């Protein structure tokens, strides 16, 4: 029922099958599951950073080597796409971690950039993981999602992570989901324990996803608070 609700409210225009979704005890569980599923001792993972530290920890836990392609503060943490692609091509990892919008820098990569990264990952046979846990916090609102690439090619080696703990304030409930090809999702599901998402989390997720007015109101309020916060920072001597 929860996966059906996700399809209805979050993925309504994708026409993806139910088998393209797996739910987890927060996206953190799914990050570790992805590492166990697609990495092995001695394999290489690439992280587009600086970013969420769990990608590194989960990759190292399965014995993979990790390389991080770092954006620099002097460039406002914006990656130069050419050098980023060159770095990935040189490293040729088995798996690439990309957080979009990025935590903690807030950098957003548009469709064109994500498309080129996904195209390169396909060329070097790397699984691309796009963590969209903070997508609903992008302002002005952004309609693009990496799910579009999966919709165009359901066999693509791309996995999209989403979280309900941020935008729907369910942090303590622990709830997230991954979207990918049915084959990739089946492989991930085999690495998960039975009943990994509690009944309480499922009920809360169904209710939260159906309350679109709350989400719209929250996004509007955050937009105002964001401007107030930036204004206060500018006034600091």
Highlighted features:
237 residues, alpha/beta, seven-stranded mixed beta sheet
Beta-strand portion reads: 15-25%
**Number of helical segments with 4 or more residues:** 9
Instruction: Determine the mean pLDDT.
Output: 94
Major sheet: 7 strands, mixed
Arrangement of strands in the largest sheet: 1-7-6-5-4-2-3
Order of helices and strands: HEHEHEHEHEHEEHHH
Secondary-structure blueprint of this entry?
Elements: H1 2-9, E1 21-24, H2 26-38, E2 44-49, H3 54-61, E3 65-70, H4 81-91, E4 95-99, H5 111-123, E5 127-131, H6 147-152, E6 158-163, E7 176-179, H7 182-189, H8 199-210, H9 212-234
Parallel strand pairs: 2-3, 2-4, 4-5, 5-6
Antiparallel strand pairs: 1-7, 6-7
Helix pairs in contact: 1-8, 2-3, 4-5
């Amino acid at each position: 029922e929860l996966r059906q609700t996700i399809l209805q409210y979050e993925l309504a225009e994708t026409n993806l099958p139910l088998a393209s979704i797996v739910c987890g005890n927060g996206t953190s569980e799914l990050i570790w599951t992805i590492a166990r599923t697609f990495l092995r001792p001695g394999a290489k993972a690439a992280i587009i950073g600086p970013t969420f530290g769990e990608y590194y920890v989960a990759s190292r836990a399965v014995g993979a080597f990790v390389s991080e392609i770092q954006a620099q503060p002097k460039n406002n943490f914006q990656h130069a796409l050419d050098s980023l692609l060159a770095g990935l091509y040189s490293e040729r990892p088995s798996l690439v971690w990309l957080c979009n919008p990025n935590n903690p820098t807030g950098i957003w990569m548009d469709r064109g950039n994500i498309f080129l990264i996904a195209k390169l990952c396909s060329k070097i046979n790397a699984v691309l993981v796009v963590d969209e846990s903070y997508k609903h916090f992008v302002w002005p609102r952004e309609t693009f999602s990496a799910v579009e690439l999966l919709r165009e090619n359901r066999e693509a080696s791309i996995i999209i992570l989403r979280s309900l703990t941020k935008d729907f304030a369910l942090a303590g409930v622990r709830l997230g989901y991954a979207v990918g090809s049915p084959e990739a999702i089946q492989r991930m599901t085999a690495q998960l324990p039975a009943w990994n998402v509690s009944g309480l989390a499922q009920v809360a997720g169904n209710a939260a996803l159906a309350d679109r007015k709350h989400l719209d109101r929250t996004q509007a309020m955050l937009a105002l608070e964001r401007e107030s916060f930036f204004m206060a920072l500018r006034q600091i001597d």
